[in-house]
């Protein structure tokens, strides 16, 4: 399920340019206030291989960049957030966020917001049967991260013009299916991803996670392309709800449908 969240503040705020981790932390705190067991499950365990099965988009708000800060030019901003949960959980999620306070902060600055509204966005695949093979074109709403894990546990990040980029996304997608269903279902699933450049060269963003902390790391994601995706409707729903590629719960790989085939 997908929601549009609108935030409002008393004045235009200053937030970190690497706002993804602070925003993710703020989302966890909101969930924890409403359901501590669910929040702890997401944070500590997740679904199999520590998949959280939620993601969120980049923020939408006019801003100016000053060093490592975003100077927001409006006291309102919005973003999309997605969860792979049954439709029956829709009211639960909306209730958690409605009128909540939310800080996007690090050790230097703190943006303080109130959730002005949270609106359910309709699924464009409602008319398709769950097991129907479906083909859609997806566009990233936040950078998509693909990588190969090295022996030290870190990733070599791949660009979209590397043939292993799409292979990595499919491997990750199949792993999510295994975590959500089972290994047999995942191994038999028909999954295809074909990249469609919007503009060459591909554009990337380097994002710092946990900036200023000993465990800080940097990840590289890509944004200016589309993906023609083929699979059963239920698996495409999973991709839409849980995100594509790596670091979804940190706001990476949030995607939406650009076109149905």
TrEMBL record:
Q: Which residues form the CRISPR associated protein Cas6 C-terminal domain?
A: 130-257
InterPro entries per record: Cas_Cas6_C, CRISPR-assoc_prot_Cas6, CRISPR-assoc_prot_Cas6_N_sf
Q: Which UniProt keywords apply?
A: Antiviral defense, RNA-binding
Pfam families tied to this protein: Cas6_I-A (PF21350), Cas_Cas6_C (PF01881)
Role description: CRISPR (clustered regularly interspaced short palindromic repeat), is an adaptive immune system that provides protection against mobile genetic elements (viruses, transposable elements and conjugative plasmids). CRISPR clusters contain sequences complementary to antecedent mobile elements and target invading nucleic acids. CRISPR clusters are transcribed and processed into CRISPR RNA (crRNA).
Family statement: Belongs to the CRISPR-associated protein Cas6/Cse3/CasE family.
Against PANTHER family, the record matches this protein to:
CRISPR-ASSOCIATED ENDORIBONUCLEASE CAS6 1
What is the protein's name according to its record?
A: CRISPR-associated endoribonuclease
